[in-house]
Amino acid sequence: MQLTSTTDYAIRIICYLAAQRQMISTSELSQELSVPSSYIPKIT
């Protein structure tokens, strides 16, 4: 199955956030997951 990059980023972000027990900044999230920071506001 092929996913768009936005869908791939969204799935990775959701899984990562579900495992976190604390707040995380968008810049930290971008760096941890190697997701362009421009995608994060679209997804969250």
UniProtKB/TrEMBL annotation:
Superkingdom of the source species: Bacteria
Protein's recorded name: Phosphodiesterase
Organism this protein belongs to: Dorea longicatena
Top-level taxonomy: Bacteria, Bacillati, Bacillota, Clostridia, Lachnospirales
